[in-house]
Amino acid sequence: LSQDELKKIAAYKAVDFVESGMVLGLGTGSTAKHAVDRIGELLKQGKLKNIIGIPTSKMTHEQALSLGIPLSDLDTYPVVDLAIDGADEVDPYMNLVKGRGGSLLREKMIEGACKKFVVIVDESKLVKHLGGSGLAMPVEIVPFCWKFTAEKLKLLFGDAGCVAKLRTFKENGEPFVTDNRNYIIDLYFKKDIGDLKAASDAILRLTGVVEHGMFLDMATTVIVAGELGVTLKNK
Ligand code: DER
Fold first, then answer.
1. Which residues form a coiled coil (predicted)?
2. Strands 114-122 and 80-85: what pairing?
3. ipTM of predicted assembly, 2 dp
């Protein structure tokens, strides 16, 4: 099975949790895309009714619109019944790294407001420790004096050895700009971050930082699709 087929299997399994009448957080990324497509399909077939979608990005907003999913926002629905979204990394305690697609702020706001947060991944996303895979740990920052903030972030993790890079477009080197008109600094760690809560607090205390991509103690269910089948883990 290809990685995308595994993502689709996990996504469809998560949509089994969707009931008519729910207010749904609609995730962002290639895995969540399958879940949003499936919700649109079930609505069209009349198997789901009276769904309100709260999109976690402009991209998901467009996708949901094209599928005819009724949309709203957190101002109108401050409590969300269920959110379904992908992740870049999942550790054994269901802590996540998210944001390599650049949507972490709206995802964290919406997923932080939901009663159930179902994470959908293929098995390649499973890690022993967050940040240890050498892949990016995204941090959303204000554009003002971004070099200053990037340096402060780097200095936070002196001993863990961390490189802080402004996320830019490969083709022209221009800074990536989030839906909220902010920049993203990608942190690359040379070894495990260690105490995630302490790291989270330290990052958030830096003036100029908006939010980071560690989603700690937020997922209520993780659905993993692998070569040997689909597993479901609850908090
Ligand atoms: O950017 C994000 O937070 C995405 O949800 C990401 O974490 C998962 O993206 P993928 O499903 O395309 O791997």
1. none
2. parallel
3. 0.97
Q: What is the pLDDT of residues 206-216, one digit of tens each?
A: 999 999 999 99
Task: Give the integer Cα–Cα distance in Å for 129 and 68.
Answer: 39
Q: What is the pLDDT of residues 172-208, one digit of tens each?
A: 999 999 999 999 999 999 877 889 999 999 999 999 9
User: Counting atoms of ligand 1 from 1, which one is nearest the CA of 85?
Assistant: 5
Count CB-CB contacts under 10 A for residue 211.
22
CA-CA-CA-CA torsion sign (130, 133, 126, 185): positive
Buried b (16+ CB within 10 A) or exposed e, 141-153: beeeebeebbebb
Alpha-carbon Rg for the chain in angstroms: 18
Averaged pLDDT, 120-146: 94
Q: Spell out which residues line ligand 1, taking CB within 6 angstroms.
A: 27-32, 85-88, 98-101, 103-104, 107
What 3-state DSSP class applies to 135? coil
| 90 close to 125: Cβ distance less than 8 angstroms | yes
Model-wide pTM > 0.90: yes
- Return the exposure string of 76-98: e unless at least 16 CB atoms fall within 10 Å of the residue's CB, then b: ebeebbbbbbbbbbbbeebbbbb
Q: Whose CA is nearest to atom 7 of ligand 1?
A: 87
d(CA 38, CA 204): 36
- CA-wise closest residue to 121 among 159, 158, 89, 77: 89
pLDDT of residue 77: 98
Give the residue, by CA position, lying nearest to ligand 1 atom 4.
29
